[in-house]
Please model this.
Amino acid sequence: MASVVTAERLSKTFRVKVRDPGLAGAFRALVRPRYRDVHAVRDVTFRIDPGEIVAFLGPNGAGKTTTLKMLAGLLYPTSGGVEVAGFTPWSGGPAFKRRIALVLGNRQQLVWDLPPEETFLLNQAIYDIGATDYRERLAELVTLLELGDVLDKPVRQLSLGERMKCELSASLLHRPPLLFLDEPTLGLDVTAQEA
Model:
């Protein structure tokens, strides 16, 4: 059986500007910028087989989010290779994007001034989900995550936990075979985490 995710010697290095404090430091950085390399991910190799549930554990700054972003095609690796669901993530196009979902605890796809149901309708159009399938899937997610009271409230009025449940729902509407979660329990109470 072929792996769904394969990462071979995956590395990501960011080049960041170094600046001394104060006005003089700001001026020096403008005239003669200095840089340093930050190695976010170093030489990571792993495989994930169909049906497996895998978690990355590590301290802040260990490269977990960077790795997920490379798996989802949001970042190019500095070196190494990745294959996800038979695609190279950053060149897989729409066919690849239909096979995955990425929920980032610190980013949102929900529109701040609109209710979550508007984002859900947008995702219905983007992923070409038929009306009947959309209604059934949404009803299932609303029941499972207890979203009935929040669908028509502007996102800015929702608690962090309610927003995270809506983010998860928006990502699951198209039923992706692969789901990448970064800090998925951020803001969720124990009951929601068990769902």
Notes: The chain has two domains: 1-92, 98-195. Residues 98-195 form a domain with the Rossmann fold fold (CATH 3.40.50.300). The longest strand covers residues 34-48.
